[in-house]
Amino acid sequence: MSETSSRPLGVAMIGYAFMGRAHSQAWRTVAAAFEVPAVARRVIVGRDETAVAEAARRLDWEEHATDWRAVLERDDIDIVDICTPGFLHAEIAIAALEAGKHVLCEKPLANDTAEAEAMVRAAEAATARGQIAALGFTYRRVPALALARQFVEAGKLGTIRQAKAAYLQDWLVDEEAPMNWRLRKETAGSGALGDIASHAIDQVQHLTGQRATSVRGRLATMVPQRPGADGPEPVTVDDAAWATLELDGGAIASVEVSRLATGAKNRLTVELFGTRGALRFDLENPNELWFLDATLPVAEQGFTRVLVTEPEHPYLEAWWPQGHVLGWENAFTHQARDLLLAIDGSAGFSPDFADGLALQRVLDAIIESDAADGASIAL
Amino acid sequence: MSETSSRPLGVAMIGYAFMGRAHSQAWRTVAAAFEVPAVARRVIVGRDETAVAEAARRLDWEEHATDWRAVLERDDIDIVDICTPGFLHAEIAIAALEAGKHVLCEKPLANDTAEAEAMVRAAEAATARGQIAALGFTYRRVPALALARQFVEAGKLGTIRQAKAAYLQDWLVDEEAPMNWRLRKETAGSGALGDIASHAIDQVQHLTGQRATSVRGRLATMVPQRPGADGPEPVTVDDAAWATLELDGGAIASVEVSRLATGAKNRLTVELFGTRGALRFDLENPNELWFLDATLPVAEQGFTRVLVTEPEHPYLEAWWPQGHVLGWENAFTHQARDLLLAIDGSAGFSPDFADGLALQRVLDAIIESDAADGASIAL
Amino acid sequence: MSETSSRPLGVAMIGYAFMGRAHSQAWRTVAAAFEVPAVARRVIVGRDETAVAEAARRLDWEEHATDWRAVLERDDIDIVDICTPGFLHAEIAIAALEAGKHVLCEKPLANDTAEAEAMVRAAEAATARGQIAALGFTYRRVPALALARQFVEAGKLGTIRQAKAAYLQDWLVDEEAPMNWRLRKETAGSGALGDIASHAIDQVQHLTGQRATSVRGRLATMVPQRPGADGPEPVTVDDAAWATLELDGGAIASVEVSRLATGAKNRLTVELFGTRGALRFDLENPNELWFLDATLPVAEQGFTRVLVTEPEHPYLEAWWPQGHVLGWENAFTHQARDLLLAIDGSAGFSPDFADGLALQRVLDAIIESDAADGASIAL
Amino acid sequence: MSETSSRPLGVAMIGYAFMGRAHSQAWRTVAAAFEVPAVARRVIVGRDETAVAEAARRLDWEEHATDWRAVLERDDIDIVDICTPGFLHAEIAIAALEAGKHVLCEKPLANDTAEAEAMVRAAEAATARGQIAALGFTYRRVPALALARQFVEAGKLGTIRQAKAAYLQDWLVDEEAPMNWRLRKETAGSGALGDIASHAIDQVQHLTGQRATSVRGRLATMVPQRPGADGPEPVTVDDAAWATLELDGGAIASVEVSRLATGAKNRLTVELFGTRGALRFDLENPNELWFLDATLPVAEQGFTRVLVTEPEHPYLEAWWPQGHVLGWENAFTHQARDLLLAIDGSAGFSPDFADGLALQRVLDAIIESDAADGASIAL
């Protein structure tokens, strides 16, 4: 691990598309919002020299580079932030960890379990050397969801018996929407399952504090081919998926995801039903957490819309006065903060690569269940 | 007062239009839903023989009649339910009270203060004889509003400092909507003010438990003429109104009403802001009361949507299981119940004619303020 | 079939609990709200003489009786309205149909498929004689859901690819809530599945106009025993259930139901996602239909809250001015209207017993799938 | 005006509290999100050396300074961004304009009309020299409000007859909340009126495109004294205000603001009612615009929730995929973008100082009306 006492922590970011822009915003903002170790945006890495140079300029990185392996050898790089498509995660993350760098890897951890297992082995070794191997399930750091976790931990829901999660989008409603890497199995691993069910399942397990012990799943590809560069091309991943999960705390969770849910823009919803209370969340209104306290007198019960913008709420002391809401992007700043504090030794970081592997196994089990006509698959 | 021990209470209803239909539904339903003295729908009265005969058949009244004065002489009539336009209220109500009948009079009590004062004198004399003179501000008996009143009385809001009420409709948005009696001063007294601001102001005073001590008001007639039978006819009442009220408990209330509020169908909204809590209500979602408890820990505060369908809620024990919502009409059944119980001596009835007069004076003061360029008018 | 030209249609209602009260309200109200053939509430039938006599008085029926077989022999009875628990449906309905009566049978049609098949045979014979055999999936007559069906039929959703329905209640959250007939397999057939999933599945099939061709299902009994008269007693039905349905139009539907969904009071929700639009409905706000028109310019798209209270909306011309909302009970009046019009020959009635049988087969298939570890069961 | 072709535009920001932090975030972010001229955060200025040095570090400015007059003399400063309390605006802005700088001045323009007039004179002279004098009513650049303005301009509302705006907060509910500069007339000018009614009135005028021609107003100070450094100190500004405005297009607008509206966190709401449509907005859900199209068939009408996150929406092409919502702070980035583009000559900037003066006159008229017992004050 690099010596960080006398200079800022240097970050190298691999990838500069959607996630790269979001992570850049976080790295630019984190030290203004939070008390964290100093950080420097050293280098942004991509394959296309022209494009990555432009990205460096726009996103305000000191340098750009096209060879991520060379970047890993630099002494001024302490953190490697991996924002590439999933099929590149394993190779880069393992090399970065072996080079002694802290790693932040976007979800999903990998496209299959074998890769994920190799990554976990590398992370275990690195962690033993004091490095951090962090996984980017950023929604855990949406304040309302962090508050939800606090409520569950404080016992406000009692025993959770049922969970209901969905992640609905509609960007594939149009049958003429063209092919891209997210619709091919070899680059994306899976479709809606890996891309968005992964978030829904991570929230279910994280919020309840319960792990899946068995699953039943169904996948569907409703639009089986789409326009490619050379004419119609088969879609080789799912565009919708359904699952039920048995959790080790006795709860049953349902998960439904789709990229053809007309009118749903980015609708990750989670509902938890417990013996003492209930919670609801919708990512399209991310500043609200709906909480029902079933221990109140019946005549006063109902879902309370908590506007999660008070200084008493997670991460909010760093931002604006009450009622001045945050956007989708702020959770990335919270993630950068928590990573910097973890490197600084003042806190741990969750989720880690092992969490990512465990989640990958749940996704694989859903695929296996679907292939087995819906049979339960134990984890 | 009639002897009621050995036979059902006999009701005569004057008027059979919108309000007559709603009251009929209540009289037909009340004994099924609630434990009340037996009641008989004896006679429905109107000027048009054919139409009232048809109304009697449809609305299930035993008889119909065209001469309300003759009906008042019948011994089998105990209750006179006045559903006519406001300009007929005074004459009928006073005669009915003098004939020894209980009276339920639709709001507004009268079209002007002089009439209202005469009605109050008649009611005082009748009340001394044991009769009930009830005023039909039915919305007080919407369960969510009745619950709101309970919350205020229980101190859940602390000291109420500010109230904000509105009643917005849009049935006059179209400039070609034709003239009718509600748009002429001689029949309607006023426009949106008497028709709907009366509800908003009644709720403000009733819910807060505070009375207006002075008002400032503004009236407007945005569409000054409309198609009449003989060509364009001037609209002689307001179609929108605004007022602020100083209340005797120190609060200030705002009221805004309109018949040209595009998209508002029957949107009576009331918000109360107190030192310990707040309340919100919207008549377009009448089964919901939104309550904020400002004494909770800040991280848990927010408006709670209480779905007012529990047996613990006002009037609800008589209806369906929880979550099976009521409609607009049910409050009329609650009103009939409360009137029957009042007649039976087991409870009082509020509002009474004196409340109607007090409200009329507030409305008059708003008109006076508008005429005086917005000057405060004391009550 | 009875001769009905010269006298009102006579109704006999069997059962006087929750459903009996709701149906009574409908029979009392229908002729006031709608133009229908005259109808008389002749007799209410129950096993407990004292209780049924009291019900007759409260609910305003002419007579009461304890022997439903004797009632079927009366010439002045034209309609038999069956509001008993499901295990009595078959016997009564078949006898009533054989006695030449029109029958309205509450859902579920029967507790098992064999009974349902016998009922369908009886209904087919009766229908050939001109009788009506109607099934009470009353929610089809909630105006917002009737409007939803109109929108789908008019093509406003295009091809429906995905449906998402849930029916969540919370009356069994408390582990100490006592046993009752709804929790025993021998009286109730199934638990949440038959009671509420039946509604959700009926809506999915009715609204989409597509029928299930195969299902995968999961059942759970989260609280396995409850206090009985003689100590703890096993709960022998499901208290939550999940299913996915393949529909013959190519859509996939998910259904989730629970009686332990803390904070959900009567939350039947349905969402439909089509190539041209989407719909959402929630029974806790039954006057609202949310519609998204995906053919509008993108900048104007979104879910529109249609307040279903306009005279242009189904059933609404009979009720109150716009914005004056209906309650849960009004749909029963619509059902009574539609039945009377069907008897009068001016319209058909849907759903019928065959629909009930088809639905029963879907429910059975879900049970079978659960028993087969989630395997697909073809219909 | 400085020569900007060969180097970034240099910004000096005066003030580093709440507004300074929000503006810094915008200056750091603008070039990443939008194509704009290069910009450099040269110097942040404040009176307290230690605090401003720390702010420079945290907010990532190149330098800090304590003497704003000296900063105005620097050639590398092109833009002066004024984030101080209002009583300092006039002096700094006039000096900066006279020094040839572009100025962005936070709202309100000034604490009284005399100051505002002097500022407008300075701005007029500067504008003639090619400088920009921009006023920071940032909410005009919340995408949903910018979209609202587009809808009105496109005629989607027809003639707007009625507007209803409120800005409700609750940070002064507690009577023990201490005195600060915002509660003293000499530093703040007015209370809720200048601070938040200014926003509401700016929106009403901007969105409708109509200007106030006369007002009636009422002010109240509900908590007349608060804890000061030396014991109780009188509150010399309003904590709530109400007004009605006649607009030059024939509409009437109501405005209500409060700092004691329990449960309202930052609730700026605007509703517009026109002959062809209506709009609603709530700053606590700033990504939503609710639009009703009154030209649709009645059965389909209702308020549509437009989630303003599509690339077709104002400013959104620069941010994230659809459904990934923005926060309160992003509007400041939009403001910085528009200012840079205005300096670059590719667009104008609105509002300007003259708009601020016009608004100040409306605020003054409300105060005058209140002092005249609610009399109408012409503008």
TrEMBL record, chains A, B, C, D:
Keywords: NAD, Oxidoreductase. Residues 147-280 form the GFO/IDH/MocA-like oxidoreductase domain. GO terms for molecular function: nucleotide binding; oxidoreductase activity. InterPro entries: Gfo/Idh/MocA-like_OxRdtase_N, Gfo/Idh/MocA_oxidrdct_glycsds, GFO_IDH_MocA-like_dom, NAD(P)-bd_dom_sf. Residues 10-127 form the Gfo/Idh/MocA-like oxidoreductase N-terminal domain. It holds the Pfam family GFO_IDH_MocA_C3. This is Predicted dehydrogenase.
